[in-house]
Amino acid sequence: MKLWQNWQNGARMQRWMKGRLPRSNDITLTQRRIFIFLTGEGALFAVLLLIIFIAGINYANNLILSFCFFLASLLVVSIHHTYAQLSGLRIHIISA
């Protein structure tokens, strides 16, 4: 966890962001500019999916496995819809 925080707040991250996303006052969000990460609740959801998957395999229960795959597909579809909503959005900075 400490390594991630150092990378996130460090100069390496700043150099990477400046190289990938140069500063400008007018931005149109494209595939290159949209980053979708899981929040804390999303990470907890992923852990829940892992636990459900292990339980489904352990008990050889197809209903539990299908429920796990259904929830995983909901996660993927929600990421897709988030991208679709943000793609093409134009942001203009008026003043800072």
Explain what the structure shows.
- The protein is mostly helical and 96 residues long.
- It contains 4 helices and 2 strands; from the N terminus they run H-H-E-H-H-E.
- The chain has a two-stranded antiparallel sheet.
- Helix 3 runs antiparallel to helix 4.
- The two termini are 33 Å apart.
- The model has no long low-confidence stretch (mean pLDDT 88).
Instruction: Enumerate the spans where pLDDT stays under 50 for 5 or more consecutive residues.
Output: none
Mean pLDDT: 88
Strand order of the largest sheet: 1-2
Give the overall form.
elongated
Task: List the total number of helices.
Answer: 4
Content-based structural category: mainly alpha
Strand content: 5-15%
Give the tally of β-strands: 2
The arrangement of helices and strands along the chain is HHEHHE
Portion of residues within helices: 55-70%
Computed Rg: 19 Å
- Specify the biggest β-sheet: 2 strands, antiparallel
* Measured distance between first and last alpha carbons: 33 Å
